Amino acid sequence: MNKETKGMLIGFIGILVFSLTLPVSKITVQSFNPYFIAFGRASLAGLVALSYLAYKQVPLPSKTDLVKFAVIALGVVLGFPIFTTLAMKEGSSSHGAVILGMMPLATTVIGVIRFKERPSIGFWLVSILGAALVMMYALLKNSGSFTYIDILLVLGGICACVGYVEGGELSRKMNPRVVISWALVISLPINIVATYFTFSSSYWGADVVAWTSFVYLSIFPMYLGFFFWYEGLAIGGIARVSQVQLIQPFCTLLASSFFLDDRITLMNMVFAFLVVSTVILSKRMLVKRSH
Length: 291
Fold this sequence. Notes:
Blueprint: H1 3-18, H2 21-28, H3 34-56, H4 63-90, H5 93-99, H6 103-114, H7 121-141, H8 148-170, H9 176-186, H10 188-198, H11 208-236, H12 238-241, H13 248-260, H14 266-290
């Protein structure tokens, strides 16, 4: 098995974990404040990460890497959970699945900008087409106007992509598990304080489903999923392995249907397919240019 294939298989496991984030967030937000969910899940994951680093006796990161960890933390530990959880307060996870279908393309674009690559004009045109499709979907779903839910989802997606690119690059020179662990640990003080102020004593009365969902969000998409995702990006390369994200919108749509009884509409499937098609096309153009 070559490195690219191995990286894609490992990354695929991470994407399966991530694909449940929106529907599980939708379940959790029915019982808890969105901010408590965002900060609380990061706090629990951070404590687990701290235990892991202590157990492995991992040395402190350098000042240069510390800045990179901070960027990752702002993207995937703080930004994405806060924005998407707020969006799930009133929005649907199936709608979010289509909007976040642009993440693979956004990850590639951010990677291109970050590492100063020079892709073809065709790549940029397809990228614009993909963004236009997402905008069209949002407009059609909301009677010709954008909503704050769409804005929250877009902001969350951008935050995640920045964290993916920086984390994938950093994972080339250090263990991917250490990368996400440090990102969680350096933001732990902020998350613990924020969790304390957003917690309500009434939450103790929440049912088992709510707390189980909260623990899932904390341990899996917030932490363990990155073990597989960052390792896959590091082994197979960011440009190639990020293609695995193509299946995430469809996995999220299926999960939304299963857990929340969200009806899978023809419009959702058509736009998810169109967005994914632009991502595939952009990847091919990027690869051709690199050759």
